[in-house]
């Protein structure tokens, strides 16, 4: 069985902007895979290439072995996408929006109805089935986006910041729904700015920056890349930095009565540090261990040193709005299916492309 996603040397240029710059990534079937990256890293562009909303300018991309361009329908039918934007037809009851969506992907009329009901039940808004999208609350809209992604019973569920701006309770509800789906075998690709979300849910995380992969690892492996801080509080201020001999120690600093020891795993060096301090005449009273968070590792791995960064990001932010809607302005709107989709899909993801490129 081919992997859920395999991309090699993937490139996308928007005029002068290199949104994807030789991205290599493999998402195994059945995994819960997180995609992290700072604003403008290329996450949405990557997703849009997979679902056929943006045409790549180089490299190779396939979904369950289907080339995203040469076998667009095969790739697209395997994917359920919950995009960042609420790109939903607002004039129909939500159950009809789901029927249309299922029908577009070849699901029969009778099955479409059943699937729509199941999807709405799963996300907890079945009682709202006759309501138009606009009349749903913000939280229900987020639930609906997930239902719409599920209605085709996809093998690969792509969630682009599914919990952005939702309250804690809904976030936990959505986590439960997607965790259940993953347990049932659905591969999940999740982009998020909530590091805690990636840490809790994902079995593997890819960090991308400037359109390239920085690293792929489990959340645990990533946090191990950072260093912890062990603080030892003494009975009196230290006059000088004690010499601590242990190859696991990366650095020692002193601040009054606090000695801070940086090490890959602070808890492992506690006995050795205390023993050495006591041998040098210090009296430790208390200790505190601060573990590196995935967030710190992430910031470290994606930190940009040059000062031009802020300016570059500021410019990015306007284009980002377009990116998330799947348009492709600088290329004159060369999206793969901006024009190619039938009316039955015009209420869906691809309609946005057409609208946005007007
Ligand atoms: N339609 C477009 N036209 C021109 N430039 C674009 C377009 N879409 C995206 N870009 C640029 O491509 C780069 C990658 O954008 P993309 O939206 O894919 O990043 P992202 O990682 O999804 O960001 P965010 O986390 O802010 O959603 C950015 O520099 C962005 O400005």
Number of strands: 14
Total domain units: 2
CATH homologous superfamily annotation of the largest domain:
P-loop containing nucleotide triphosphate hydrolases
The first-to-last residue Cα distance is 40 Å
| Biggest sheet statistics | 6 strands, mixed
Please trace the helix and strand order, writing H or E for each element.
Answer: EEEHEEHEHHHEHEHEEHEEEHEHHH
CATH class of the largest domain: Alpha Beta
* Secondary structure category: alpha/beta
Order of strands across the main sheet: 6-7-8-3-9-10
Mean pLDDT: 83
Question: Which compounds are bound in this model?
Answer: adenosine-5'-triphosphate
User: What is the radius of gyration computed over CA atoms, rounded to a whole number of angstroms?
Assistant: 24 Å
Domain ABC transporter: 5-235
Protein name: ABC transporter ATP-binding protein
GO molecular function: ATP binding; ATP hydrolysis activity
Pfam families: ABC_tran
Describe the structure.
This protein is an alpha/beta fold and 358 residues long. It folds into two domains: 5-222 and 300-356, P-loop containing nucleotide triphosphate hydrolases (Rossmann fold), CATH 3.40.50.300; 227-291, Alpha-Beta Plaits. The chain has twelve helices and 14 strands. The protein has helices at 43-50, 72-77, 94-104, 109-123, 138-150, 168-183, 195-201, 219-225, 266-279, 294-302, 309-325, 349-356, and strands at residues 5-14, 17-27, 32-36, 58-63, 66-67, 79-82, 156-160, 187-191, 204-209, 212-217, 228-234, 249-255, 258-263, 284-290. The strands form three sheets. The chain has a six-stranded mixed β-sheet with strand order 6-7-8-3-9-10, sandwiched between helices. A four-stranded antiparallel β-sheet has the order 2-1-4-5. A four-stranded antiparallel β-sheet has the order 12-13-11-14, covered by helices on one side. A hairpin with a 2-residue loop joins strand 9 and strand 10 (212-217). Helix 3 crosses helix 4. The chain is elongated. It starts with a strand and ends with a helix. Bound molecules: adenosine-5'-triphosphate. Adenosine-5'-triphosphate binds at residues 14, 17, 19, 37, 39-45, 316, 319-320, 322-324, 327-330.
């Amino acid at each position: 069985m081919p992997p859920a996603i395999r991309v090699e040397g993937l490139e996308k240029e928007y005029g002068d902007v290199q949104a994807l710059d030789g991205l290599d990534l493999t998402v195994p079937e059945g995994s819960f895979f997180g995609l992290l990256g700072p604003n403008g890293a290329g996450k949405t562009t990557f997703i849009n290439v997979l679902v056929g909303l943006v045409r790549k300018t180089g490299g190779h991309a396939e979904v369950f072995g289907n080339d995203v361009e040469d076998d667009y329908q095969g790739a697209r039918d395997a994917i359920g996408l919950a995009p960042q934007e609420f790109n939903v037809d607002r004039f129909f009851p939500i159950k009809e929006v789901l029927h249309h969506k299922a029908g577009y992907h070849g699901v029969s009329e009778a099955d479409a109805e059943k699937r729509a009901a199941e999807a709405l039940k799963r996300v907890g808004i079945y009682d709202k089935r006759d309501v138009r999208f606009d009349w749903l609350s913000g939280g229900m809209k987020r639930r609906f986006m997930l239902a719409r992604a599920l209605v085709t019973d996809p093998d690969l569920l792509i969630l682009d910041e599914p919990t952005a701006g939702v309250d804690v309770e809904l976030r936990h509800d959505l986590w439960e729904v997607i965790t259940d789906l993953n347990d049932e075998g659905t591969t999940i690709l999740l982009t998020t700015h909530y590091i805690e979300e990636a840490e809790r849910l994902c079995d593997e995380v890819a960090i991308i920056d400037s359109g390239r992969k920085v690293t792929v690892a489990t959340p645990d492996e990533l946090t191990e890349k950072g260093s912890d801080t062990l603080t030892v509080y003494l009975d009196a201020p230290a006059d000088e930095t004690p010499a601590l001999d242990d190859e696991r120690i990366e650095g020692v600093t002193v601040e009054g009565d606090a000695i801070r020891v940086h090490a890959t795993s602070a808890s492992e060096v506690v006995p050795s540090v205390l023993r050495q301090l006591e041998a040098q005449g210090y009296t430790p009273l208390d200790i505190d261990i601060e573990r590196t968070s995935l967030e710190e590792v992430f910031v470290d791995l994606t930190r940009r040193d040059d000062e031009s960064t802020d300016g570059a990001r500021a410019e990015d932010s306007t284009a980002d709005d377009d990116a998330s809607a799947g348009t492709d302005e600088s290329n004159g709107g060369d999206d793969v299916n901006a024009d190619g989709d039938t009316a039955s899909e015009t209420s869906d993801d691809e309609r946005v492309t057409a609208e946005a490129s007007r």
